[in-house]
């Protein structure tokens, strides 16, 4: 079981604006609290030992400058006597202090190492969790979201932006550990001379305020970098996916321009961001060194001159200050770089946000199989609220029957079918399964009883075997049997490695007809209750068509079939034909009856009959 931070710690975090800005990312840290706490504890210990080292250095300098003076003491009796040896000789004390400085330094080095290791572990765990979180987000969000989101931009978020976020986290972790050391330095300075420390803190704070204005520019530029990267990835993905079309249309010049422009925009945005970033470091270094020199002058000319500061203390003060200034440089530089990653952090937060995305509210009822019918009751649907693609659709799809959908391109056939696996939900009306609202069902239990066969079926870049068995745990024999029933046996056997042949990206190594037969074999293994057939629109040769038709008939036996038909010849035997026109059902009934009515179906029939006749004549 995973343990989380106690509620009071979570509430403490939640109230800060930093937390609110980064909440969606930082909240993932709660899933590995032990690692986070260990990283912080090691960082604290490293800082503490840095402090001890410097404390002992002060003792060392005091012993050097004033060997006969009062020996350095911590106030802890046993430590002062046994470890510091306050009752021993000057030389022995010097050796003991040197040994302590060395011990503190080595222990600090070990804790520094552990801090680094643990922050790396936290980073990697955080990034892994964020990737999983994005996966879960993309799985749970409704398909509507993908209609309005560019896949290239999402790819950029999962790859590039996540990588930047990891870098950002590394910088933040570094700053926190350095910040702790800085805190220890300030405490030491405070002990040596509080007046000088107050002056130093004031001056460095002023410096930090000045630098934050510069950092703001970097932060803004980072948003432009993220945006340009997203747009560039989108164009690159589109170019690769559409390479055949680009070459076929000889539009390489247009695409080159688009690609180069997007690439130029990334370059420009990155240069802008880097320019802003580059200013911060030299300005910070120059200003900090000025403060440092000013502090030395004040310390020597005022505090040492009037005797309020011993030479040993001054030396330690300056030593700490010399260590402090580069630490401040690093923190400032890192903060500026961190700002240059703000765009990426914002980008990931945007993907993870749940309040601005459409979600499918899942039901709990388990679907065990269709008993009576799927009913559409006065269903309205539109991808945009102001344009209905389905208008007042009322339809009964009876169990065990074949229902065919016919209509012109764009009439809404695919959309109607997409509402059954709840890719989208109706805007008005409802869909009932055996009299129960579809939304009451656990949607995966419904989807598991469904299969879709179309020429667009997605083929994964893996073997024929894995593509056929996709979503089922079928054994070798069952896969061969499905391939045989799907009339895919012959071409699979002819492939160089049979079932183990890799099908390439999106199945590029398959013909349209072969792809469809793989889809049929896949559907057969799934043994679906409800089968959706989206007939191929592209022309297949008559042998392929016959093979596919034959295997579809085998697949359809005993199932509830919803077929989107483009060729009327394939649906003559359907139990019901539904004619859609501009999202409305204009006719439904048996094929023969509808023809006799001489309505819309008859009209389509005439057109197809005529074109078939012309085709025959020309051949
Ligand atoms: N994802 C989408 N986002 C926005 N509009 C869409 C989307 N898919 C389809 N449409 C629109 O919805 C309408 C119906 O499309 P649909 O794909 O359902 O028609 P169809 O009858 O299946 O057409 P075809 O026979 O050409 O496949 C069309 O006007 C189409 O532009």
If you had to describe this structure to a student in words, what would you say it looks like?
This protein has 619 residues and is α/β, with parallel strands linked by helices. The chain has 21 helices and 10 strands. It has helices at residues 7-14, 17-26, 33-65, 77-83, 90-140, 143-147, 151-192, 194-241, 243-248, 252-304, 311-340, 342-352, 413-418, 443-447, 464-469, 476-485, 489-494, 512-526, 542-556, 591-597, 600-618; strands at residues 373-381, 390-398, 402-407, 428-433, 436-437, 450-454, 530-534, 560-564, 576-581, 584-589. β7 (530-534), α19 and β8 (560-564) form a beta-alpha-beta unit. α2 packs across α12, α3 runs antiparallel to α5 and α3 (33-65) packs antiparallel against α11 (311-340). It is elongated, with a radius of gyration of 36 Å.
Q: In whole angstroms, how far apart are the ends?
A: 71 Å
Spans of at least 5 consecutive residues with low confidence = none
Which ions, cofactors or small ligands are bound in this entry? Answer: adenosine-5'-triphosphate
CATH class term of the largest domain: Mainly Alpha
**What percent of residues are in strands?**
5-15%
Give me the count of strands: 10
Largest sheet: 6 strands, mixed
The level of helicity is: 55-70%
- What is the domain total for the residues? 2
Shape: elongated
Provide the residue-averaged pLDDT.
Answer: 84
Structural class: alpha/beta
CATH superfamily of the largest domain: ABC transporter type 1, transmembrane domain
Instruction: Output the number of helix runs.
Output: 21
Q: What is the strand arrangement across the widest sheet? A: 6-7-8-3-9-10
CATH topology of the largest domain: ABC transporter transmembrane region fold
CATH architecture descriptor of the largest domain: Up-down Bundle
Computed CA radius of gyration, to the nearest angstrom:
36 Å
């Amino acid at each position: 079981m995973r343990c989380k931070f106690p509620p009071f710690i979570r509430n403490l975090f939640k109230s800060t604006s930093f937390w609110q800005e980064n909440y969606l990312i930082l909240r993932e840290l709660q899933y590995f609290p032990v690692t986070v706490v260990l990283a912080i504890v090691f960082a604290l210990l490293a800082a503490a030992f840095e402090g001890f080292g410097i404390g002992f250095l002060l003792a060392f300098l005091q012993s050097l400058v004033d060997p006969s003076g009062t020996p350095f003491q911590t106030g802890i009796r046993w430590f002062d006597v046994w470890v510091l040896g306050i009752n021993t000789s000057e030389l022995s004390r010097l050796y003991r202090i040197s040994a302590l400085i060395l011990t503190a330094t080595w222990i600090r080095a070990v804790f520094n190492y552990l801090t680094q290791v643990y922050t790396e572990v936290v980073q990697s765990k955080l990034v892994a969790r964020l990737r999983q979180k994005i996966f879960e987000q993309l799985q749970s969000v409704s398909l509507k979201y993908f209609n309005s989101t560019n896949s290239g931009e999402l790819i950029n978020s999962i790859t590039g932006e996540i990588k930047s976020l990891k870098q950002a986290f590394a910088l933040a972790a570094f700053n926190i550990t350095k910040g702790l050391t800085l805190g220890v330095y300030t405490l030491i300075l405070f002990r040596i001379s509080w007046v000088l420390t107050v002056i130093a803190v004031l001056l460095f704070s002023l410096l930090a305020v000045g630098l934050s204005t510069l950092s703001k520019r970097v932060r803004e530029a980072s948003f432009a970098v993220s945006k340009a990267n997203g747009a560039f990835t989108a164009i690159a993905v589109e170019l690769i996916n559409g390479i055949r079309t680009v070459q076929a249309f000889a539009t390489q010049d247009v695409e080159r321009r688009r690609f180069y422009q997007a690439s130029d925009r990334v370059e420009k945005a990155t240069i802008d961001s880097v320019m802003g970033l580059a200013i911060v470091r030299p300005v910070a270094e120059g200003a900090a060194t000025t403060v440092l020199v000013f502090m030395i002058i004040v310390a020597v000319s005022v505090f040492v001159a009037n005797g309020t500061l011993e030479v040993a203390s001054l030396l330690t003060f300056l030593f700490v200050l010399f260590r402090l200034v580069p630490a401040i440089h690093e923190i400032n530089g890192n903060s500026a770089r961190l700002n240059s990653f703000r765009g990426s952090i914002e980008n990931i937060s945007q993907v993870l946000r749940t309040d601005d995305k459409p979600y499918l509210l899942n039901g709990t009822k388990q679907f065990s199989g269709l008993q009576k019918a799927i009913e559409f009751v006065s269903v309205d649907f539109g991808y945009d609220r102001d344009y209905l693609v389905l208008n007042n659709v009322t339809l009964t799809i009876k169990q065990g029957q074949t229902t065919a959908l016919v209509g012109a391109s764009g009439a809404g056939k695919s959309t109607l079918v997409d509402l059954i696996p709840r890719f989208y939900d109706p805007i008005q009306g409802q869909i009932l399964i055996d009299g129960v609202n579809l939304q009451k069902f656990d949607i995966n239990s419904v989807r598991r009883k469904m299969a879709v066969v179309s020429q667009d079926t997605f083929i994964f870049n893996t073997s024929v075997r894995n593509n056929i068995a996709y979503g089922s745990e079928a054994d070798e024999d069952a896969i061969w049997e499905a391939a045989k029933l799907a009339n895919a046996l012959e071409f699979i056997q002819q492939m160089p490695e049979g079932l183990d042949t890799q099908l390439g990206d999106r199945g590029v190594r398959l013909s349209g007809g072969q792809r469809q037969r793989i889809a049929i074999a896949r559907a057969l293994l799934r043994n679906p209750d409800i089968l959706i057939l989206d007939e191929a629109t592209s022309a297949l040769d008559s042998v392929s068509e016959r093979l596919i038709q034959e295997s579809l008939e085998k697949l359809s036996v005993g199932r509830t079939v919803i077929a989107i038909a483009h060729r009327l010849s394939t649906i003559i035997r359907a139990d019901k034909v539904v004619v859609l026109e501009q999202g409305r059902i204009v006719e439904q009934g048996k094929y023969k009856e509808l023809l006799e009515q001489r309505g819309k179906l008859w009209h389509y029939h005439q057109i197809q009959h005529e074109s078939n006749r012309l085709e025959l004549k020309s051949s």
